[in-house]
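[Meeting: bench + compute handoff]

Bench side (C.D.) handed over the final construct sequence. Compute side (W.E.) agreed to return the predicted structure before the next meeting so the bench team could plan truncations. Sequence as handed over:
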Amino acid sequence: MPTRLVTTGEARRRLTFPGLEVVRQTGSTFAERLEHAVAGAFADGWQQLVVIGGDTPTLDASHLRDAFACLDAATGRQAVIGPACDGGYYLLGLNAFEPAVFRDVPLCTAETGRATALALTLAGFSVATLARLPDVDDEADVRALARRPGQLRLVAALLLSSLASTDALVRGWSSILRTATIRSRGPPVVPPTLS
């Protein structure tokens, strides 16, 4: 079977690689899109899957190998969670579909990882845990990444530089617009040299 990537429609048009099946997300909320992607994969005959996000820059192939190795070794319902430092998770591996994991768990909170592990346990899964990794949700996370050694530091620094330039541009335009708005409200002013 090819690797399946579930993504937005816009990204779908740009991704064409041999062995990559690109499927469009469906659902109106993040939880629905995640549930539909997982349910769809199992309905199409997949027996194991690993879901990852795009906001964990220190995630590498070893994490994926470890997740699949855990699923391969399982004799019953098995889950693998890669916990994020903020309480969420960066990876979820499953060998069976369980809707409660997506419907009964508040996503994008500091309790998501713990609540997901509990929901899986209550649904009869054994739950394995990978190493905790930081994800990038806001500017503070990018700043923390910029302090790490290696190439990710450079990427974070470029992003912060871009944010600083954008902030300066926004402040500059805001100042210009504020000044222009104030001038447009008053009567015309004739400079003294022209009077």
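W.E. noted at the follow-up: Strands lie at 3-7, 20-24, 49-52, 78-83, 89-94, 126-129. C.D. will use this when planning the next construct.
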